[in-house]
Amino acid sequence: MNVKMNLRSFTQLPTSASRRVALNTGILYAKMGITVFISFYTLRLIFNALGESDFGIFGVVAGAIAMLGFLNNAMASATQRFMSYSEGEGDKEKQKSIFNVSMILHFCIAILMGIILLIVGYFLFNGILNIPQERIFAARIVYYLMIVSTMFTIVTVPFDAVINAHENMMYYAVVGIIEAILKLVIAIVVVFTVSDKLIIYGALMAGLSVLVMLILGTYCYRNYEECTFHPKVHFNKDIMKQMTNFSGWNLLGSSSSMLMNYGQSIVVNMFFGTIINAAQGAAAHINGQLCILATTMMKALNPVIAKSEGAGNRELMFQATMSGSKISFFLIALPSIPILIEMPFIFDFWLGTVPQFAVIFCCLSIVRSLIEQLFLPVAYSIAVHGNIKKYEITSSIVCCFPLVVSYFLFQSGYPAYILYYIFIIYAIVVAGVILFFAWNNYRFPVITFLKKVLLKSICVYAIVLGITFIPFYLLDSGWLRLLIVLTVGVVSFLPVAWLVGLDDDEKDMFRRSFAPVIQKVVPRKFIKMFSLEI
Question: pTM (2 decimals)?
């Protein structure tokens, strides 16, 4: 298919559709603004209640519970690809068949994953994990609870995909806020419990993940007509074949990525113990909260990418992918600059007792996330296109190298933070793999991407980083400097991103999407200064 790149295609999206993306993003950000602060306070309570050792044990043993969100999103994106694609085609019966096939597939995957985790657990607790002997029993209980939680999560993946395909972000926001509040309640219970705090925390967190998944499933059954589980009526062999093939390769890539991320905790634990795992857990929490910003936007934009390809509008799919890459990068970059600069002060205030290496772990994790975020929408567009076999095999092979290299470096006496430098190199290699397959599979305009997305994003980040460092060097550490650094970072980022980072077409999309807000909130002189006229 010979596609001429039209950079105005994305702005030709109907105003109602572009505003729907903006509205969904706004709803999810409102939810995020509430949950992030609750989440940070919750982790502080848990860290102090469990102590460094037990917090590290939970991170290495039940850290897979945190990985469930990653696995859930990755697997849901596969089902969502078929749902959104068929919605773009306007075929409701096909959506029912997709849902039924998806439920059968994920039930089988849940059983398989449960068996695999039980087998893996035997080896973990017999010579691999470095856990104090008196805490082995508690660690085992938490691990088995995680397996149950994993299986429930996998079975309810199709419901998550349906909500994504329908772009119902309001429901996500409500459930997310309820989940954050319940996590805070769990933290308070753990603080005051007289029983084994680690076991109680693991049991309550596993129960919460099951509860949230059941709520999603119940809502979908009641509100979406395609969520009707009648395999005898809606089963389709051709769709089963397509989805089995696609989901199988997608599961390979998702599982290898999940095991790589979880495996880093195991490798670090083997050489450095649970105290360093505590540092990993704290660093992962801050990095995870930053990534929510970009994940939120992509949850609203992914259906547009899939529906565009399903409707045969590849030009729109290209531009939505590139704009999504740039904007999602900006959403992580905006808060990450002042956080990177003031990381020691933030950790000291947040946790009081800062685990060794936590600051450097967090800084390097954020750098890795910034690199990965630029290319995640492109990776999603590969999945939307559908030809993922070679891409997933290559990605899975590449996933093996960081842990293997780290293991031998640790044996040679290198410090724990070398792992995070290796993961930055890994992120760059994966970026090259993504661009290669995007071009090879459907002629994604790589040169245009490098010029208009990668180069502009780096320029914006470098300029704002340089500006924000000025008050950092001029002032002494403290609340005043933190406040000024945050203010300078945010105030300088917005105009630099607008003037240097965004293309004219993206500015047009922004004006149309947020026209009512711009006209009511932004002063007239700034509208003229930055060309915000609608």
Answer: 0.67
